[in-house]
Design brief:
Mean pLDDT: 96
Strand order of the largest sheet: 15-14-13-12-16-17-18
Helix content: 25-40%
Shape: globular
Bound molecules: nicotinamide-adenine-dinucleotide
Distance between the termini: 36 Å
Number of helices: 17
């Protein structure tokens, strides 16, 4: 019987190729080709009552319902799915009428009250490998996550931390939920419950989460509080999560670190190709933490972001989008509940299919995985794909890019800026220190650019030592593609631990 090819198995193609190439020790291969631990558990919360808009066809039936007068401004919390959370505390001074479970709010319309109650969500934490240091990897809150996906992402972290040469291993986890359909308070409860269940498996020297899709510094603050609450030496534990707000032990530069790392890689590529970034035309997918930061930094270097695609739309301007206005539209406008570029007045709406085919120099995917399929890769008219997202290119898509001579900066180096500054944050927490942004970025630039140089040397089979990097230990005697080269670097660094330290029994 044919077994289904999992995303994990598929993502390990590069691993297999690199392992063969360097004749990776066979026991090491067995140790690292599957995760150390795969945790699946459930978290429950009590959800609040919701107000669901009543459709126009139902309105006539509720003609008799008078307006309700709710004075408190925070009585209703709008959710991105069109519903409202009804906060009971706000009803204390209200004059309301509810008939047949329906309420009329002036200026908002008619709503059916949907009863809240307990709900259960599937949660995950995959701890892939810790031979080089504590498990490290972010937390994703998204409706399309699975164990298979978290295995892929956790393994990516093992490779990425080895490539950035920081003393961490790989992990990933999260909850299967659409966070936009829940209130802030519900998300807080869910996060607390997640940490409650995971507490024994986390720790600054055991497993260190960070933000990813659907999570942010606020969620990290909640995780840290839950983990450290009641601990006598809680300040020693601040490094249990990274990506915190700078005011509570986060690092300067962390918010933009992933985007900054993407741009450091692009700069190196441009230098090698004699390409001018000023005036370069950029396509960007995703305008969250990574995408928006990369856009701001690239625009600051004079590049033109000609189109941005996200989960809810695409905006395009041939002259280049005004990035500060777009950041304001997406991230600073409270009415934009889905945090989307759609509806941005400074650009024209185009289809996703047209987005891929736009004429540009660079594409920065900074959204979800598996977006650059063979069909998309065939349509691209760019010179470089700089992978801000994790796993944005499918293996078949990768083959098409190679055949069309479109360069790729693989995710494991391209977006390693985030975890690298997470390591700086963790170090500052351990030492009770505080570094400024220039110091953070200086160290980040050296790490990203020197390791990217090692990868390019492995790819070109060009062993050498310069003041900034030394690739002699890693070259394999033959030229390989850049993605395989990155994996060679990761595997050689990981293998050294097993070979030099041996195996615990
Ligand atoms: P985010 O939640 O801040 O933003 C995600 C963006 O992707 C949003 O703009 C969203 O609209 C868009 N998106 C979601 N689904 C989409 C779809 N189907 N089509 C097009 N766009 C879609 O997340 P983020 O932290 O910016 O992470 C983005 C990517 O970068 C992820 O792959 C993540 O794993 C990776 N990454 C993030 C970090 C980090 O520090 N945050 C570090 C390394 C890698």
């Amino acid at each position: 019987m044919a077994t289904r090819k999992t995303a994990y198995r598929e993502s390990m193609e590069t691993f297999d190729r690199a392992a063969e190439l360097i004749r990776l020790n066979s026991r090491v291969r067995l140790e690292i080709e599957e995760p150390d631990f795969e945790h699946i558990f459930y978290v429950t919360i009590d959800t609040r009552d919701r107000l669901v808009p009543v459709g126009p066809e139902e309105e006539e039936k509720h003609r008799d319902i008078p307006d309700s007068d709710v004075k408190a401004a925070d009585a209703f919390e709008p959710l991105a799915d069109g519903k409202f959370i009804l906060h009971r505390r706000a009803l204390l001074e209200a004059d309301i009428t509810i008939r047949r479970g329906v309420i009329r709010i002036p200026g908002k319309g008619l709503f059916q009250i949907e009863r809240g109650g307990p709900r259960k969500f599937k949660a995950y934490r995959v701890q892939h490998n810790q031979v080089r240091g504590p498990y490290k990897g972010s937390i994703r809150f998204h409706q399309d996550v699975s164990l298979d996906l978290f295995k892929v992402l956790a393994a990516d972290m093992t490779w990425k931390t080895a490539i950035a040469e920081i003393p961490f291993g790989g992990a990933k986890g999260g909850i299967r939920i659409d966070p936009f359909a829940y209130s802030k308070e519900e998300m807080e409860h869910l996060t607390l419950r997640y940490v409650y269940k995971l507490k024994n498996l986390m720790g600054p020297f055991l497993d260190i989460p960070a933000p990813d899709v659907g999570t942010n510094g606020e969620i990290m603050a909640i995780m840290m509080r839950q983990y450290t609450d009641g601990e006598r030496e809680k300040h020693k534990l601040r490094g249990v999560v990274t990506g915190k707000d700078v005011r509570i032990g986060g690092s300067e530069g962390r918010l933009k670190a992933t985007g900054q790392g993407v741009v450091y890689c692009i700069e190196e590529w441009a230098k090698e190709k004699g390409f001018q970034l000023a005036g370069a035309r950029v396509l960007l997918q995703g305008f969250g933490n990574v995408g928006a930061s990369a856009a701001e930094i690239l625009a600051g270097l004079g590049a033109k972001i000609v189109a941005v695609n996200d989960a809810h739309g695409t905006v395009h301007s041939d002259a280049g989008l005004d990035i500060p206005s777009l950041v304001h539209h997406v991230h600073e406008n409270p009415a934009n509940l889905r945090r989307t570029v759609a509806g941005f007045p400074g650009g024209a709406a185009i289809s996703k299919a047209d987005f891929w085919a736009l004429d540009a120099d660079l594409l920065v995917p900074a959204a979800l995985g598996r977006e650059i399929t063979p069909e998309v890769a065939e349509r691209l008219r760019v010179r470089l794909v700089a992978e801000g997202a994790n796993g944005p290119t499918t293996p078949e898509g990768d083959r098409v890019l190679a055949a069309r001579a479109i360069d790729v900066i693989p995710d494991v180096i391209c977006n390693a800026g985030g975890v690298t500054v997470s390591y700086f944050e963790w170090l500052q927490n351990q030492r009770l220190e505080r570094w400024n942004e220039a110091e953070v970025n200086g160290r980040l630039e050296r790490i990203v650019k020197s390791n990217y140089a090692v990868i390019r040397d492995i790819a070109a089979d060009r062993p050498r030592k310069t003041p900034l990097h030394d690739s002699r230990r890693y070259c394999t005697g033959r030229a390989v593609d850049v993605r395989t080269a990155a994996m060679v670097l990761a595997l050689k660094r990981i293998e050294a631990h097993y070979l030099l330290e041996g195996f615990s029994q």
